[in-house]
Amino acid sequence: MDERRRGGTGAIGAWLFGAAGPVEPRTPAEALGLAEEAPGLQRLREAEPLQLDRVERLHAAAQRAFERRTGEAVCRALEAAVRAGIRETSAGPAGRPPGAGTGTGAAAGTGTGRLRAEADGAAQRLAADAALAGGRGLNTGLAFGIVLSPVVLVLALLAGRFLPPLFHAAIGCPEELILMDSLVCFAGGAMGAVFSVIIRLRDAYQLIRPAPGRSEPADIPADPVQLARMMRQEGWYRVVVGWFLASSLFLLINGGILTLLTPPAAPEDMCGPVPLSAAGHQALIKAWFFWGSVGFLAGLNERWAYGLVRRGGEPRPADPPAA
Length: 323
Hints:
The chain is mainly alpha-helical. It has helices at 2-17, 28-31, 39-47, 49-62, 68-89, 105-166, 173-200, 224-254, 278-299.
């Protein structure tokens, strides 16, 4: 039972955080049980030095894949391609072109062609794996921010109720309504920030494109586990930005600095010695919808805070050249 539970916990952890790769990745030669100086491998290296170097880099990257199944499938495909290439190029002696004087040039071309085709397929699968890692990390960060929002709201309500008596003070009805309005606006900011990220992220491949001015190998995407970790931080960071934007707008409106938006009812109008009437309850509900909408609109502006998800899919403006 304990082993099954640990296995389930490990599966959830791998789904959220990615598979744990080896500390020292194996080379294709080690996976095939060959020495680096094996004659067949040396002939293949002489015949296709660029392709074999590309395969080795892809093989190492596949062992750090986010999903274990993807990494294992890519490694097996690349190892089979290397084995086929060694078999096809072993007909010619070392130092001579593959198939020279042996009538096996077409066969050797088939082996090295498979090497190129498998490398192209591996590059595509690793790019998809990195995009999946980035998208899953971002979604996890956003979900964490959404779950954290009500926790912060409850803590704020408890602080507003229990802290004043410790200082021999008390908050009245208007102050309680203002606190409730601020928390509704706060929650609206979180929802607006999440919605803003969702509508801008049209394609998960946006997360693995190199930033402007940076160049990365076309075949080797970023480390998917590290990318997922960064995107988790980016996700909840966006929710926090929405919190601050909504809180700032709430302060500007209630402080009388921003007069373009006017609350439907003042807290003083809804407090009194008699219970709220039907009209008072309706005004209270309208006030909550008002502040929730204000917070939502404020949270939409999280896009102006630069981060890993670039604003509107546009490149970050370049710095002016030095004089």
